[in-house]
Design brief:
Strand content: under 5%
Strand order of the largest sheet: 1-2
Number of domains: 2
Distance between the termini: 64 Å
Oligomer: single chain
Shape: elongated
Radius of gyration: 33 Å
Largest sheet: 2 strands, antiparallel
Length: 611
């Protein structure tokens, strides 16, 4: 964040702690506002309409300077200085309002009819007048998304020295004004001790209800809509493989505005029991999700079009969750408790994993990579695991390939028990590599989420989440289900139980795997399936070795299976073609036994039963 911004400068911190917004300025008897001298302690009371009128004039002047054909490159430096001066004058006026409210505004009190000083009468009306003027200002500046394209285009302007076009200054003035309105309304509410301020004159003229509370809510919702609209325009450039590296903002100032709104709304929730940031945001995002499944996407507020609202929601929520890592000063604080948004993410998961229509693997990988990131940031949530398991339990035979990724996107079957075990360790380690999207399929993302949620659940709750998941996972496997597994399905089955062995009750899981594999009739399996089964069992055996657990149970079963194959291989009645097939199994066994003996340190865990 910029050192001159609201976060690093301490402006937000002073706002939330209800400290003087600018303790070292506006201390003289007079103050310069828009090139006029005003009495510091009375200007806002005596001339609010005039001051806001001058503000609108300055904004209009900057708008004229920012017209597409009005910029003279020969005068770039002079125009930059002039535009910057106008912006600073406007920002200083808004800052003066905050200081005035903090220092001089008192909660409304009953005025005696006998001796009312004219100033006291006008001062008592200031909160109401201020709400009216701020409302008029919001109407005057309009929505961010309604700004001309040449203005919005400056979001991507690269800094070349310190000279910017007027359009850049105008855009950032709009950002300043949008945030300052929220600041002023927040300070007003604090100074009025929670009293609702009614805009009496506005209500008398229009018959519409306008209060400080309703204006804050309306403006905040409008600002969130504008920021979402800007993010949608940014999302157009996002590739599925770059979902974590492409941010939701084009400019650091937009990032800061998001962070400011997050901090303010979460603070107000603690103080006044209003909705937290996520609840405000979810209302807008749910409207977008109504367009999920439509070929045309969804239109936002007649100005923004999003072709992939579901992917956009995943992307935006993930990056906004990362912004929660920053504290009020703009520094990263990974130890602070984070507000999670699991309830909404559960809705996204159900849309990403529908019960009927299939989801493209390229989208599913992106969604689950976002989900994995959220699992790392937030407290554990087992509903994510159960929702995903309901989907993948029905698609275990899937290859989960992405055609346009070529060889990188092809599912592969592990060639050795050791490589199976290594893949399991990678799934459980929790580290995300930059090319994870290309190197792992969506099922492997699910395994990572499963492992992470199990580990975090055990650390935070004390009780092992395996007790809650055990029945849901085991119940999906029965004889017919096992017999329907293809080679890829069997690979996914083994990968699942290897991960469960690593993060849950290993001996219980291995025992269940053994029972389930016994449901398969070897004569009905292909050689590749039987070979895969053996490699999987040896991977479990290697896991036992690492945990220093006796392997006699697994070794005996594997040895018996090997002896049956060897016996058939050496029969004279077995034809040559069959022997070639059986040799594949025998070589698989011998290679795996060699891995076990090379891995074992002391050979004291009944490894001899493999011989």
């Amino acid at each position: 964040f910029s050192v001159d911004g609201y976060l690093v400068s301490g402006s937000l911190n002073r706002l939330l702690l209800m400290l003087d917004p600018s303790p070292t300025v506006y201390e003289a008897d007079t103050v310069n506002i828009f090139d006029f001298q005003w009495v510091t302690e009375t200007a806002l009371v005596e001339s609010p309409q005039l001051l806001f009128g001058l503000l609108r004039q300055k904004i209009s002047s900057l708008e004229d300077m920012a017209l597409p054909n009005s910029f003279d490159f020969g005068q770039a430096k002079r125009i930059h200085c002039e535009a910057d001066e106008i912006r600073q004058q406007c920002v200083n006026f808004l800052q003066y309002i905050k200081v005035f409210l903090f220092r001089y505004l008192e909660p409304s009190r009953e005025l005696s009819e006998e001796s009312v000083h004219p100033y006291d009468e006008v001062e008592a009306k200031l909160p109401s007048v201020l709400v009216e003027e701020l409302h008029a200002l919001t109407l005057y500046i309009g929505h961010l998304g309604e700004l001309p394209s040449n203005i919005l285009g400056t979001l991507t302007t690269q800094k070349q020295g310190k000279i910017f076009p007027p359009s850049w200054h105008l855009l950032h003035l709009h950002l300043d004004i949008h945030w300052s309105i929220l600041e002023i309304l927040h300070i007003l509410g604090e100074k009025m001790l929670g009293q609702v301020v009614y805009a009496h004159q506005f209500m008398n003229l229009t018959g519409e209800n306008l209060t400080s509370t309703s204006l804050f809510e309306d403006h905040c919702n409008n600002l969130l809509r504008d920021l979402i609209g800007l993010a949608v325009n940014r999302y157009i450039e996002v590739r599925p493989s770059e979902v974590l590296t492409t941010c939701h903002y084009q400019c650091g100032c937009v990032k800061e505005l998001w962070a400011l709104v997050i901090q303010l709304l979460n603070h107000r929730k603690k103080a006044s029991h209003t909705g937290a940031f996520w609840s405000w945001l979810n209302n807008h995002l749910r409207n977008m999700l109504q367009g999920v499944g439509s070929m045309e996407g969804v239109h936002l507020w007649d100005i923004t079009h999003c072709k992939d609202p579901l992917g956009f929601n995943w992307w935006l929520v993930t990056h906004l969750a990362m912004l929660h890592l920053f504290d009020r000063s703009g520094t990263t604080d990974e130890k602070k408790p984070m507000e999670n948004n699991w309830k909404f993410v559960e809705e996204l998961l159900k849309l990403s994993c529908p019960s009927q229509a299939g989801v493209l693997e390229e989208h599913l990988r992106m969604h689950l990579q976002c989900c994995l990131t959220l699992c790392e940031l937030w407290d554990p949530n087992l509903t994510t695991v159960t929702t995903l398991w309901e989907y993948y339990s029905k698609h275990l035979n899937g290859a989960f390939n992405i055609p346009w990724l070529g060889l990188k996107g092809l599912a592969s079957v592990s060639k050795s028990p050791f490589s199976m075990l290594e893949m399991t360790k990678i799934c459980c380690c929790g580290d995300q590599s930059p090319n994870l999207y290309q190197s792992e399929n969506s099922f492997q993302f699910f395994l990572r989420i499963l492992a992470l949620q199990m580990k975090k659940g055990k650390e935070t709750s004390g009780t092992h989440p395996w007790k809650q998941l055990k029945g849901r996972i085991y119940s999906k496997f029965h004889q017919r289900k096992m017999q329907e597994l293809s080679e890829m399905g069997l690979q996914n089955f083994i990968s699942l139980f290897l991960v469960l062995s690593a993060v849950a009750e290993m001996e219980d899981v291995v025992s269940r795997v053994s029972d389930l594999l016994d449901l398969l009739n070897p004569s009905l399996l292909s050689v590749t399936q039987r070979s895969l089964m053996w490699r999987g069992c040896f991977a479990f055996l290697l896991m036992y070795e690492e945990k220093n657990i006796d392997v006699s149970f697994l070794a005996t079963k594997l040895s018996d299976a090997f002896q049956k194959v060897a016996k058939e291989f050496y029969l004279k009645t077995t034809d040559f073609t069959r022997k070639v097939t059986l040799w594949t199994l025998l070589s698989t066994y011998m290679d795996a036994v060699q891995e076990v003996f090379e891995t074992s340190s002391y050979l004291h865990l009944s490894e001899e039963k493999l011989l």
